[in-house]
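**User:**
Everyone, produce one record:

**Assistant:**
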Amino acid sequence: MIIKKSLILLFLFLTATLTAQPKILTWNVENLGQSKSDSVINYIANTVKGYDIIALQEVVAGYGGAQAVAKLADELNRKGAKWDYAISDPTSSSAYKTERYAFLWKTAKVRLVNKPWLEKKFSLLIDREPYYATFEYHKKQFTLANFHAITKSKQPETEIKHFKNLPAQYPSLNIVFVGDFNCPQTHTVFNPLKKMGYKPAFENQKTSLKKRCDDNNCLSNEFDNIWYNSNKFLVKNAKAILFYQDFTDFNSAREVSDHIPLAIELELK
């Protein structure tokens, strides 16, 4: 009986391992740099450690940004899995706020294919040009385009309109757009992507934190999302992580970030 139960448990474990899809999380971490305390970095690590690929926006371009990502990777490596990471050069914008992007990933789960890169062709048209990284999972490859748009007042749709050209620019890549678009998924600027088969992983999901949280009404604006080509991918277990609920003081939550992270499981058809 004991042997039979052990075999059943082994079968269930192997089945779960073989069918588990890579878990991807995107998060605008709001000025990740020197201002983030060790306790905040540790909290971020504990929040994201259950995922396989982390895409971060709003890493400080100057001193402290790259160091904070390295510190986060170090914290993650202390929590039971081996992680690697890549940090972009500062985005090329001179007219607006330049930043860095970052990817972190579990090396036992996915493999990085080649070196991540910042978008070049549209860098003069997009202030914080996307940062791409291609990953391989079970011999299937997908490319994450990590992006942080200009603020709503500066009309992010003037940048997003160029996204319809990116899949054709990289025809061999299976591109998934992740990040903070500062624009709701209902905006007509996304229609060209939708006509190509792209869908938002989240609908009617507010993602930015208000300055005050009254009666658990803490979020405003559907800014962050994950856009995937439904002809190539299936998305499962889409989850908005309401991390601020871990804090009794809302201001302490806002020290972590003014956005919540979003996560999905991604299956390549």
The helical segments are 2-19, 38-48, 65-77, 157-160, 166-169, 191-195, 250-256.
